Amino acid sequence: MNTITLSNGVEVPQLGFGVFQIPQDQTAQAVRDAVEVGYRHIDTAQSYFNEAQVGEGVATCGIDRKELFITTKVWIEHYGYENAKVSLEESFKKLNLDYIDLVLLHQPFADYYGAWRALEEFYRDGRIRAIGVSNFNPGRLADIAAFNDIAPMVNQVETNPFHQQVAAHENMVARHVAHEAWAPFGEGRNGLFDNPVLARIGEAHGKSVAQVVLRWLMQRDVIALAKSTHKERMAENFDIFDFELSAEEMATIATLDSHTSLFFDHDAPETVDKFVKMVADRRGRA
């Protein structure tokens, strides 16, 4: 398994397994299946409402905890210093872990500065091995990195062939922040799995479009999070370390970039409104 070394020396398995939108009653088994396939990096979040089930999967997967890399994220509703600390204790309880490998601030809205101070405190206490952010654009990433004692070690952002985040990646590299990709397949939007360019490259290597996308991310030094509830698909996504894309193939994939999110623009005022509504809708969920 390839690893990415963070600015503090912590190594992250470059290919991770994400549990976004996996139902609670399927999550523990999905985690066990992913670990059996070979994944050692599991990514969840408070807002996924399946941290407890991830913890169950980790506890029952048969692999020593030290061999696993577990990520969770603090949700906007829990921002601010005190609120974030309370929510982190709840995440520890749900995950049933003595330490968490990586904790991210999930969105760049509300009092993320207060929440960041809470992450710094848990990091200094050794309860969290690395801290970072998610969905922070280059300007907000520069801001939080410049005006805090500890700079983010990771920024998890939407990254796929149609939204490649080239400028954002360069900014992360310049600031020694690891680039992590959510939605590497864009949830199949824009016909990604039938894209003729990706399919042709896959045929040349005897690989699927999904495998080409993940290999492309590996070669860009991006941490990728693949999700599936089907064990055979998990295994297929994991089988990407026996081939390499040529420089010409990487350049061809670069031409697919639309420089536009397949989901929503975090810089748009309407996105703030969207998350205000989302917080209200999710308030009170277990």
UniProtKB/TrEMBL annotation:
It comes from the Bacteria. InterPro entries: AKR (IPR020471), Aldo/ket_reductase_CS (IPR018170), NAD(P)_OxRdtase_dom_sf (IPR036812), NADP_OxRdtase_dom (IPR023210). The record marks K73 as: Lowers pKa of active site Tyr. PROSITE patterns: ALDOKETO_REDUCTASE_1, ALDOKETO_REDUCTASE_2, ALDOKETO_REDUCTASE_3. SUPFAM superfamilies: NAD(P)-linked oxidoreductase (SSF51430). GO terms for molecular function: oxidoreductase activity, acting on the CH-OH group of donors, NAD or NADP as acceptor. Substrate binds at H106. The active site is at Y48 (proton donor). Residues 21-256 form the NADP-dependent oxidoreductase domain. Keywords: NADP, Oxidoreductase. Belongs to the aldo/keto reductase family. PANTHER family: 2,5-DIKETO-D-GLUCONIC ACID REDUCTASE (PTHR43827), NADP-DEPENDENT OXIDOREDUCTASE DOMAIN-CONTAINING PROTEIN (PTHR43827:SF3). This is 2,5-diketo-D-gluconic acid reductase. The lineage of its organism: Bacteria, Bacillati, Actinomycetota, Actinomycetes, Bifidobacteriales.
